[in-house]
Amino acid sequence: METINNKLFLGGISVEELTEKYSSPLYVYEEDKIIGQYNKLKNAIIYPKTRIYYAAKANTNIEILKVLNKEGCGIDAVSPEEIYISKKAGFDSSNILFTGNNASEEDFKYCIENDVLVNIGSLEQIELYGKLNPNSKISIRINPDVGAGHHDHCITGGPNSKFGVYFDKIDKIKEVIEKYNLTVVGIHEHIGSGILDTSKFLLAMDVLLKVAKSFDNLEFIDFGGGIGVPYRPGEKQLDIEEFGKAISDKFNDFCSSYGKELYLCLEPGRYIVAEAGFLLAKVVNKKSTPNHVFVGINTGFNHLIRPAMYGSYHHVLNASNMDTREEEKLVVAGNVCESGDVFTQNEDGIEDRMMPKTKVGDVLAICNAGAYGFSMASNYNSRRLPAEVIVSKGEAKIIRERQSLEDLL
Ligand SMILES: Cc1ncc(COP(=O)(O)O)c(C=O)c1O
User: Fold this and answer.
1) Based on the structure, what is the number of domains in the chain?
2) Which residue's CA is the nearest one to ligand 1's atom 4?
3) Are 54 and 151 found together in one domain?
4) What is the reported pTM?
5) Which atom of ligand 1 lies closest to the CA of 193?
6) pLDDT one-digit tens code per residue, 168-177
7) Is a pLDDT exceeding 90 seen at residue 196?
8) What is the per-residue pLDDT for 116?
9) Res 43: pLDDT
């Protein structure tokens, strides 16, 4: 992302040119940023036997998966559909881990047929899997009694979370795995999403490493994803080198006492793709109420639900006018029929933002839309899903066409 003559450019291409060519609303991803984030994380983890499974749910566009496959990444899949797309993108089954939640018999059968290792988060579900595939290898998701995340909905550890087998149920796990002769080759946790303070991550890691000592045949330990990125300008970034060193040191110590060098696995989604993505939309309306000046754009929470769902802050740029010398207070609203359909939100709801002078016809860029943007989009109000484009070094490639009207039937 760069600014040239007060206009926003992505991957070396003017945003206005992109929306003219591909129409709007439009999702745009900077390929170099995706590759850069992946490698930044990979290089930060000094422990040599590391595997990064990209959490495909953050963005399942097949071309993005192909980019990550080329880099040597694996896949964290949560549905048979994500396994299907990942395999189409070229991932080998051995590089895919299925972490289903409330998985059905049909889900497990799909994994078995596709030779994909399953990571199971409940005793009942281990039992179900054991019946379907006795004498096989499994991984177990543990709830370490610790959770963290940017919003209650995204905290996936601790007593209020539906995920994982509680860390103190080891004896019960052993009973079930013995019954079906299952070999536990991995243990896993994922405590939440959007973590910028790593203290809870490290605490949960200690719990999981303690649990790991009870299993003799481990090949890997997976500490999940959740690594946050800054959404607000000036927000402190997580020090990825410090984080990589801290987890490497802990893991090294563990492996020495375990007597075997296991794989250290992570499952980042947001960290890899969030900052690479932008939702571009055109200003189609501007109006005032006694409280706010609204600019209305040609997209809504059907295309990016995070502000409406979590009160998530997304920075909004006026790609047509980046000149901050003359600013006005604005609320950026979408075109869906609900008052909550506002992009300028924070945890307390709608907020006025200082933005450069904005007029009908300008193109706005909603930042950090690469993770949980398109992948959480819907056809609510029967609006079509936007096209997706990937940009790099002055070249743009369409990676998903805008839906047609026929697609809605
Ligand atoms: C099991 C699991 N792993 C990894 C992730 C990725 O989280 P994030 O995108 O915050 O890294 C999630 C997110 O929900 C998850 O449920």
Assistant:
1) 2
2) 225
3) yes
4) 0.96
5) 10
6) 999 999 999 9
7) no
8) 98
9) 97
pLDDT tens by residue, 110-126: 999 999 999 999 999 99
Q: Is the CB of 55 under 6 A from ligand 1?
A: yes
- Looking at the fold, whether 213 and 71 belong to one and the same domain comes out as yes
Q: Are residues 73 and 10 in the same domain?
A: no
CA atoms within 13 A on the CB side of 278: 30
State residue 154's pLDDT score: 78
Q: What pLDDT was estimated at residue 185?
A: 98
Please indicate, yes or no, whether residues 110 and 231 belong to a single structural domain of this protein: yes
Indicate which CATH number applies to the domain containing 89.
3.20.20.10
Does 253 lie in the same domain as 163? yes
- Domain CATH number, residue 293: 2.40.37.10
Report how far ligand 1's centroid is from the alpha carbon of 262 (Å): 22
Does residue 105 share a domain with residue 229?
yes
Q: Whose CA is nearest to atom 13 of ligand 1?
A: 193
pLDDT for the residue numbered 145: 87
Tens digits of residue pLDDT in 57-81: 999 999 999 999 999 999 999 999 9
Mark which of 255, 273, 291 sits at the end of a domain.
Answer: 273
By residue range, what is the domain housing residue 302?
A: 2-29+274-408
**154 counts as catalytic:** no
Q: Higher confidence at residue 157 or residue 258?
A: 258
Mean pLDDT across the chain? 96
The pLDDT score that the predictor gives to residue 197 is: 85
C-alpha dihedral, 210 to 211 to 214 to 220, nearest 10°: -100
Both 104 and 181 in one domain: the answer is yes
Residue 178 shares a structural domain with residue 85: yes
Mutate to test the pocket of ligand 1, among 98, 151, 267 (most ligand atoms within 8 A of CB): 267
Of 253, 273, 293, the one marking the end of a domain is 273
Measured from the CB, is residue 99 less than 6 Å from ligand 1? Answer: yes
